[in-house]
Write a structure and sequence with these properties.
352 residues; alpha/beta; Rossmann fold; five-stranded parallel β-sheet; two-stranded antiparallel ribbon
Length: 352
């Protein structure tokens, strides 16, 4: 972790080097790069089931995804993977990821890897004082389109597939860039979301305090969901965002509960406003757990992905609600949250 973090820190301070290598990649592989066909993004607030869904859909025969091993040379995926192929393979034993949430990973597991690119082109991408929707950047547009073509070539797929939680407010931007894109947007019951977020935030805060290199890694890789440098997505309402930030700054448990409740409500309101967008498939985490087959069939219909019978059978055998921690809030913690949560909970048929 420390070696990769130091390497990423050096590379990301050398954008001229990174983009020179990327341009070389463009020239070297130009005749091999395919057209982009209906890219797919899985998005939603963290702790809503986006990673497990990515792991499932990555096994579709058409899917081309980022993998853990693409970091930190995310900008030059072909060259980096060609170099790695010449090196001895390290330990590939599946290990539980840092979230300690039962999900096992190897260097070849699919992962969210877009964010370092967004961060390089949009300095304000994680400025919590500004709405997270982004203005057009022509240089980014050209680079990103080429990047997707490189992933398709590298992975031998025909459909780019990515998990990107921060792309939730960027859906209009991506649809302008890729009008045929498809989005799978997940949401989770607010009490379960809050309970899981509190758990993850405490875990990341403790680990980043004990080992500052872990904090630096999350910053360089663009993961600000939890921990010492938590940066909630700004969904466009300045007053709401200031309330969320103020609550997060208060270590009192009641303030933290209120912050996560406000954040869930803001994300849910954004999703609800997009509910009639034909590019979006809205999926409740609970429905994915209760009916993996039906949920995946909905996704297949929406995206056009081929989901073989063995993939669906694997989902039915492995996807389930968490049972390794209390997956909802105790009654005492729910006091005072209903007024914040009720409107959007009702909109998504959640009972409080």
């Amino acid at each position: 972790m420390t070696l990769l973090t130091n390497l990423a820190g050096y590379l990301y301070r050398q954008p001229d080097l990174l983009f020179a290598l990327s341009r070389y990649e463009d020239r070297r592989y130009a005749e091999h790069l395919p057209a982009i066909d209906r890219p797919i993004w899985i998005t939603g607030l963290a702790r809503s089931g986006t990673t497990i869904l990515l792991q499932l859909l990555a096994d579709a025969p058409e899917a081309a995804t980022h993998r853990h091993r693409d970091y930190p040379f995310v900008h030059t995926p072909i060259l980096w993977n060609r170099l790695q192929a010449l090196l001895p393979r390290g330990d590939t034993t599946p290990r539980e990821r840092a979230h300690r949430d039962r999900l096992l990973e190897t260097p070849d597991s699919p992962e969210a890897m877009e964010e370092p690119i967004w961060q390089h082109f949009f300095a304000q991408a994680h400025d919590v004082s500004r709405p997270s929707a982004l203005e057009t950047n022509a240089a980014f547009d050209a680079f990103f389109q080429q990047h997707l073509r490189k992933l398709l070539y590298l992975r031998g797929g025909t459909r780019y597939l990515a998990k990107a939680n921060y792309n939730l407010p960027r859906i209009p931007y991506l649809l302008r860039l890729f009008p045929d894109a498809r989005f799978i947007c997940l949401i989770r019951h607010p009490y379960s979301f809050i309970a899981s977020s509190l758990k993850q935030d405490a875990l990341f805060t403790a680990e980043q305090t004990a080992d500052p290199s872990k904090l630096r890694h999350t910053q360089l890789s663009g993961h600000y969901e939890f921990g010492l440098d938590k940066r909630p997505i700004h969904f466009g309402e300045d007053t709401t965002q200031q309330q969320i930030l103020s609550d997060f700054a208060n270590p009192d448990r009641s303030a933290q509960l209120t912050a996560w409740a406000r954040y869930w409500a803001a994300g849910a309101a954004y999703l609800h406003a997009q509910r009639d967008n034909p590019a979006l498939c809205l999926l409740r985490y609970e429905d994915l757990c209760a009916d993996p087959r039906g949920s995946l069939q909905r996704i297949a219909t929406h995206t056009g992905l081929t989901l073989p019978a063995d993939l669906i059978a694997h989902a039915e055998a492995t996807v389930s609600p968490p049972d390794y921690y209390p997956a909802t809030l105790p009654e005492a913690d729910r006091t005072g949250l209903a007024s914040t949560l009720s409107p959007m909970a009702a909109a998504f048929d959640y009972t409080l």
